[in-house]
Amino acid sequence: MQPSSTQSDDRVVVVAGAGGAAGQAVVRALTARGARVIAAGRTPHEWDDERVTPAVIDLLDAAAVTEWARGIAAGHGRVDGLIHLVGGWRGGATFGDTDLADWAFLHDMLIRTLQHTTLAFHEHLRSAPGGGRMAIVSQHAARAPGQGVAAYGAAKAASEAWTLALADSFAGTGAAAVVLVVKALLDDRMRAEKPDAKFEGFTHVDALGRAIAGLWDRPAAELNGTRVDLSA
User: Fold this and answer.
1) Helix or strand or coil: residue 103?
2) For residue 201, what are the contacts with CB-CB under 8 A and spacing of at least 6?
3) The model's pTM
4) How many structural domains comprise the chain?
5) Disulfide engineering: 202 pairs with which of 96, 186, 216, 219, CB 3.0-4.6 Å?
């Protein structure tokens, strides 16, 4: 029987983009479930939890990411999860104002980093004991982009398509890839800065963390290839 993720276990989960508010919340939620987390970012970040191993990695360097993934698998004996939280936003007021430099930035941040990490960890997740999990966080603009977010919406849609193709490769393996959809993310700093704001439909980063930590609670066949809306 697969162990419940409510209990301490030896899962090894890689979180890419761990330094931001969402990444920190996800890392906290995973370690609270007993996972060992490799917390990756572009700049150093200190963690006060012995279950967290920090990593500084350029996710735009495909060779470096592949070697990094091999090192994690060799050092820990397994990789049970890849959570891709690398983000970025660019947009304007109208379609005509779209700057294609924004597309170049978003292509690298949202798509290319996802491609490099998923290709590097693919076989490790497929062979993970109990089934690997992979997740991205998407946004409603992937399906219903406004004119001012053409580049952002297109990048999010491409990221979703890539993740769903990964999910297809996981069919029948016990692994699962999922798209978590939000309107926007909310953290305590945002609430403190705007105490009177309602933030309707926003998803708190702690709720995102709980959703990600709970991915192992659901059977892969039920979860794989789904879009889960976390909008409040």
Assistant:
1) helix
2) 183, 184, 231, 232
3) 0.94
4) 1
5) 186
